[in-house]
Design a protein that fits this description.
The protein has 119 residues and is mainly beta. It has one domain (5-113): Beta Barrel (Cathepsin D, subunit A, domain 1). Helices cover 11% and strands 53% of the residues. The protein is built from 2 helices and 9 strands. The chain has helices at residues 37-42, 94-100; strands at 5-12, 15-26, 33-36, 49-54, 60-72, 75-84, 91-92, 102-105, 110-113. Strands 1, 2, 3, 4, 5, 6 and 7 form a 7-stranded mixed β-sheet that branches. The termini are far apart. The relative contact order is 0.25.
Length: 119
């Protein structure tokens, strides 16, 4: 299986003029997106709290989180964002992808429009 990377904008929801284009690994196993803390601070995005996460090897780590707007292709969506620390990958997680209206096709390793269903 291959890896899927996309370039997307991260935008400060309180000041949309502050934005940064980054390359993300699309991780269908990640719930939340991760952006290096230095980039989020540059955008003026501040932590709102912290959460504990379990890594693949069972190790628990604590990371700060905040809120950002992500933009990809013709879509924008608000999503929680994790403040990445040294060694953390820049990830686009499923909550952000769904907010953007996309889903990862696991066979073709490409983003596809997410069927929008009400009800």
């Amino acid at each position: 299986m291959g890896l899927t990377y996309v370039k997307a904008l991260v935008i400060n929801p309180g000041n949309p003029k502050k934005k940064l284009r980054l390359q993300f690994l699309v991780d269908s196993g990640a719930v939340y997106s991760v952006v290096p803390e230095s980039h989020l601070r540059k955008l003026g995005i501040t932590p709102r709290g912290s959460k504990t996460f379990t890594l693949a090897d069972g190790t628990e780590v604590s990371r700060k989180y905040g809120h950002a707007v992500f933009a990809l292709k013709d879509a924008e969506g608000a999503s929680p964002v994790i403040f990445g620390e040294e060694g953390d990958s820049c990830l686009l997680g499923m909550v952000s992808l769904e907010a953007l209206g996309y889903i990862l096709d696991p066979l073709r390793r490409e983003l596809r429009p997410l069927p929008m269903v009400l009800g």
